Amino acid sequence: MEFVSQHPILVVSVVKIVVLLFVTLTTLAYLTWFERKVIAHIQSRLGPFYTGPHGLLQPLADGLKFMFKEDLTRPGSDRFVYILAPILSFSLAITALALIPFGPGTIRIFGQETSLAIAPVNLGLLFLFAVTSVEVYGVALAGWSSNSKYSLLGGLRSSAQMISYEVALTLSVVGVLLMAGSFDFNSIIGSQSGRWLGFVPRWNVFPQIVGFLCYFTAAIAETNRAPFDLAEAESELVAGFHTEYSSFKFAMFFMAEYASMIVVSCLAAILFFGGWLSPLPHSWAWQLYIPSAILVLGGLGVIVDGLWKLRGVARLVFPVLGLVMIAAGALCTRPGVIGVVQGPFWFLLKVFLALFFYVWTRSTLPRFRYDQLMDFGWKLLLPVSLANLVITAVVVLVVHP
Amino acid sequence: MTLPVLLFFIFAGVAVGGALALILAREPIHSALALVLVMVSLAVIYLLLGAAFIAAVQIIVYAGAIMVLFVFVIMLLNAGEEQRTQRSRMARWIGVPLAVFLTADLAWWVARGVKVVPAAAAVSATEAFSTRDFSLYLFRAYLFPFEITSILILIALLGAVVLARRDS
Predict the structure, then answer these.
(1) pTM for the complete prediction?
(2) For chain B, which end, N or C, has fewer CB atoms within 10 Å of the first or last residue's CB respectively?
(3) Any idea which architecture B3-81+89-124 has in CATH?
(4) Is A183 part of the contact surface with chain B (CB cutoff 8 Å)?
């Protein structure tokens, strides 16, 4: 306890990091489950179903499998770089999350007021781009160090792709920066508060719709996801840059991909959809109970599902889980809690919708060809986002001289 | 020793180590990675000086763009390990004395005059110099050199495109 009182910032930061890491890793695992389920239902299948109820233990089984597989290293590969690449990929993708503010204001940990971001720096956006711009190394080095033709080609392809789309990604965001006049996530979100005509929220997505479309397209390409997943076009390159990786090193690339998806979705929510701001007018007081209502309804659904549809242990576990959710919903109506919950609730809801959109595009769009990809990036996305930037700059100059 | 000073010495050490590794490594990719390490530790040193904007730009431009291109080109050309040859005669007779002279010179100046600025004072002095001030200087007082530089870079880009273009 003496240590805690002597180094408050250090202790609080470590606590926040541990909590965020735990939450993120769990989310990563269940994001794979979510993706498989959604794609399966879009394609009229059921998806994972046998490992646990609704396949809910599938991520756990996958994780165990990754850990117990043989860890192969190809002869002739550059050992140091070969091991460095997945570590670099994963740690950089996770580091970017440290900059994301998950809610407004401050909370109390050990009697210390602290914000809902691990690193609330006032150049947040710039540092986020600094971290994501270095992420290319993981892919490039993995491709190079594996000593395999497929890996090398996949690594070259995806580094070329990431370099090309990073330009459009950065340019599409500058419009928002000009409107907010700040790199700070809190002031970017703050600049989006208020309404047009009394009911339309002043989110950047409306004036910056072109910027948003460019941003999200470039972001999908930047995270190497379908329809831009040429790095691992399995019909041509086996698995691209991670062909020669097995066991937990492969899992790290996998987790890095999902972590960057989360980062990109968080950024979309912050820059274009008003971050933690509620879409409903301020005067509707009942909106404060929406998080509780969703938790209670979800809990009831889980109880009903568990008692009527499932068998075995799940029949016991699901009702208990439902009761826990209902209790959490009830807790969210308490006076001290209800204010704190609002921000993170809306923020996470927006992030979740962005992630759903990601999965949706993956399951519905066919993969681009490599020359189409390059043409699209350089000849369409880049000029459009540049034009958007110039128009925004002129408008901002006219409106606020 | 306060924390900023300690951090400075750690990252200065990493930068020097990276620079040495850059020269001594025989695999071109290892050299490139060592250079990335140098860039990143320089960015941390900028951060310690309170220049957060410069630090972020240092990483975005050098580590994130230029060095990625270096690595990309090395991969594309599939450059192999370097051969160690007999050291050149010029390096032995001119390089070594010059290196000794430079080190002695630096050591002398450091030993003589340079005082260690208290880190806290250094930070508070530069904190006032924000990104806003920086951009105001860049686009008001130094607009002409800035534009000239960008035109120069544009010319270099055009030149690269013209050279890379195949005759059709």
Answers:
(1) 0.83
(2) C
(3) Up-down Bundle (1.20)
(4) yes
